[in-house]
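Raw record, unedited: Nitroreductase family protein
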Amino acid sequence: MTQVLPSEVETHRQPDHEINPQFLTRWSPRSFKDQEVPEDVLLSLFEAARWAPSGGNLQPWRYIIARTAEERASFHTFIAPGNREWCEKVPVLAVVISNTQTLNGNPNTSHAFDAGASWGYLALEAANQGLVTHAMGGFDRQQAREALGVPTDYDIHAVIAIGYRGPVDALAEKFQEREVPSSRRPVIELLFEGTFNQPVK
């Protein structure tokens, strides 16, 4: 790769095959500044999310965002304590949901897959804009449904923290050693050929 990677990324992430560095430099920190994200920058993330592929082009994903102190406080009520501890300073929180039904009321079997693609686009554009994101599965979905008025025909997938990266030493000590880019399993472990568990030749 021609682009020089940040040392913390290069230390923990080495690709098996050459790829665009954006896939390596995007990771999920826990330390955030309490710095406001300009609206045009924030909306660019959801513009990217808008263009993700989806089955039948149904675009089942929706996002509910919290930017004001009052809105974020509402989100804090359903975020698990272990996550809330580090995300108190986060200036923008978002919940990603997806419609479980097609336009004619049949089950949309790809809604979660499609919402995941949309979140991936959002996360990459956030990194392009100099922001960091951290998606959380640790929250009470029923409480979130009630607090946000999410209809029963939508599944709730994740809470996403969005903002500018803060210093490591702003975190509680128990989080500091985890504030590094995580590695990934080798390509050879996730790729099969022909049938399940058949290694690629």
